[in-house]
Amino acid sequence: MKLAKRFLTGIFTFLLMVSLMIPFEATKAHAEAGKEADQYIPSETYLTDVKTDLPDGVYSMPVRLHHAYQKQLSMGNNSIDGNILVQKDGDKYTYYLRMRGLKFMGLFGHLWNVQAPEKKQVDNIAQYNPEINYENQKNFKMSVSKTFMDTDLEKKEREFPRIIMFEGDKALNQIVITIWVDAMDAIASGGATEYGKIVKGKGEQRGIVQIDWHNPISKATAKEISDYGVVLPPADKTKLEYAIVAAEKAKEGIEVSTDGTDKDKTVKWVTEAEMKTFNDAINAAETVRKEELTKIQQEKVDNAVKTLNAAKDKFETAKKNGTKVEAPKYADLTELNKAVERAKAAVKNIKTSKDGKDIAKTDKWVTAEVMKAIIDKTSEAEKLALSKPTADRKADVEKMTGELNSMIGKFKPAEGAKVEAPKYADLTELNKAVERAKEAVKNIKTSKDGKDIAKTDKWVTAEVMKAITDKTSEAEKFALSNPTADRKADVEKMTGELNSMIGKFKPAEGAKVEVVISKSDTGNEDKSTEMKGLTPPSKMHVKPNALKKPVKTGDNSMPLGYAALAVILVGTIYYVVKRKNAK
Predict the structure, then answer these.
(1) If you ran DSSP here, which 8-state letter would residue 37 be given?
(2) Which of 469-483, 507-521, 523-537 has the lowest mean pLDDT?
(3) Among residues 97, 78, 98, which one has the least CA distance to residue 25?
């Protein structure tokens, strides 16, 4: 089976190679491509001379792919999709050839690479086609500038070349190219059916791209330029930019008038309509300048230049000199008026005095004579300015300006020398603090521990009382000394200290214990008696409330008890005296 397969593949490859050598119209591929034998166009019709005098631009021309060695079209001719676009830019020529897939021999193949052939390959073709010359295209560069997705040999989507670009320095009607077609490479790779097994370039062929410069040449449409991905150089706007600058300059100093009678004879003028027409022309040119135009649109730029230059010439012709009657020329009063203003500003708020002793130190003064002199000169200068002196009185104006400026320079007011009464410090807050301090100690008693102060009273220690009364006295004396304003800090300090002491002055309530003694329960009304010097109930181990209860005597024997105590006391004293005498 393997031998049979190899044999069949070899036969198939052989037949393919033979088919490339026989006339195109006799091949199966030709029939599948839809080409009829009578559609064959002899090569000679594509070999007319090229047109090198074409203006720069992009042109659309008929094209075909010719067999490299025989006078017939190539099998791949039908893979060319539409015309070829030829872009001329000075001495540079760029060719854009659009390709598509092609069915032949039961396969749907694609051009998948194009290369510039070597010299020996071109020279070999020249044996069959004398019009071919390697020197014509030796500097040509060939590349793929655009691709597209299409069904491949495996019936899958694959990326293939769409636009083939040739770049060179010559206008040619024949360009030799080396072609790689995936179907041809598959057959030459032993009938491979998978791209992974196809050897690229194995079925390499050469063809001749022939361009028809003979038929009427038309410019490429915008759609063709877009579809082919033609890269267009920008239009040259240099002349347009110069024309716009010149037009703007032509307007400089030109004024608008109805008849020129309101314009000086040295002034150029045009009517409002003439100015508008010229401005419209400049704006139109500016619009073209801002457009993104390509070289094939150069004509639009050139027309804008012509239109603007014509408008400029018309505008220059429309210019006329004014016819205004000259008014008398007056002297320049700028500096004189400035001097008057400076003089008025100099005397503002300045007082007059003989010696300044009646002028406060914060004010300034000059003598009445000096003040009168500068005021009189200012008035004289102002009158001269208001008289609108003509130009022939320029010297008078300059003299007056100099004299007034000189007087302003010598005008040096002095500070007042008035002796000011001393200013005193504000004692409002200090006096308030003194009053608050006096009020704070009012009715406050002094004590060591407050036990001798009734609970209805308040007390502080003698030291605290002395401190606040001393500070109050000190502050009061300080206030009475009537301190001057420069002692403001001392006043504030004294006020702060006294207020601080008042804030800390916190008298406590008295802690004196009151004892109540009642008569026996005879039904008589109780009378309270303060027992001075008695031991406090807490130290007698007697509850404080116990002292408030009436003393029960039972049989009212209180007088007898007192008599017995007196007898005992006398006896004790007698005994002690007797023993002392015995010793």
Answers:
(1) G
(2) 523-537
(3) 78
Phi, psi of 454, rounded to the nearest 5 degrees: -60, 150
Give the residue from 243, 172, 167 showing the smallest Cα distance to 208.
172
| Residues in Cβ contact with 235 at an 8 Å cutoff, skipping those fewer than 6 apart | 293, 294, 295, 297, 298, 300, 301
Question: Of 452, 437, 467, 440, nearest to 509 (Cα)?
Answer: 452
Residue with tokens 């300080």: 478
For the chain, the straight-line distance linking the first and the last C-alpha, in angstroms and rounded, comes to: 171
User: What residues pair up with 194 in beta bridges, in sequence order?
Assistant: none
pLDDT band at 581 (very low <50, low <70, confident <90, very high): low
DSSP 508-540: EEP-PPP------SSSPPP-----TTPPPTTTT
CA dist 488 and 490 (Å) reads 5
Mean pLDDT of 266-279: 95
- pLDDT of amino acid 106: 77
Strands across the sheet with 458-460, in order?
444-446, 458-460, 508-509
In this prediction, residue 554 carries a pLDDT of 43
Q: How confident is the model at residue 98 (pLDDT cuts 50, 70, 90)?
A: very high
* pLDDT at residue 193 in the model: 87
What one-letter code names the amino acid at 415?
E
Is residue 83 within 8 Å of residue 129, measured between CB atoms?
no
d(CA 47, CA 173): 6
Res 405 pLDDT > 80: yes
Between strands 174-181 and 157-168, the pairing is unpaired
Beta pairing partners, 158: 150
pLDDT tens for each residue of 144-179: 999 999 999 999 999 999 999 999 999 999 999 999
| DSSP letters for 131-196 | T--HHHHTT-EEEEEEEEEEE-TTSSEEEEEEEEEEEESS--SEEEEEEEEHHHHHHHTTS--SGG
C-alpha–C-alpha distance, residues 151 and 149, integer Å? 7
Per-residue pLDDT, averaged over 199-209, amounts to 92
Buried b / exposed e over 36-58, threshold 16 CB at 10 Å, is eeeeeeebeebbeebeeeeeebb
Tell me which DSSP letter residue 233 carries. P
Phi, psi of 97 (to 5 degrees): -110, 120
Q: How does DSSP classify residue 214? A: S
The predicted pLDDT at position 541 comes to 45
Q: In which order are the strands placed within the sheet that holds 255-256?
A: 255-256, 268-270, 320-321
Residue 161: CB atoms within 10 Å:
21
For residue 219, the cross-strand partners are 59
Q: Provide the token pair at 295.
A: 């070289």
Instruction: Give strand pairing partners of 148.
Output: 160
Confidence label for 25 from pLDDT (cuts 50, 70 and 90): very low
Contact in structure between 224 and 163 (CB atoms under 8 Å): no
Q: In 3-state terms, what secondary structure has residue 423? A: coil
Higher pLDDT, 26 or 201: 201
Q: For residue 302, with 0-12 CB atoms within 10 Å meaning exposed, 13-18 middle and 19 or more buried, which class applies?
A: middle
Tokens of 269: 């003028």
Mean per-residue pLDDT over the chain, rounded: 83
The answer to whether the CB of 205 falls within 8 A of the CB of 188 is no
Q: How do 157-168 and 107-109 pair as beta strands?
A: unpaired
Q: What is the CA radius of gyration of the chain?
A: 64
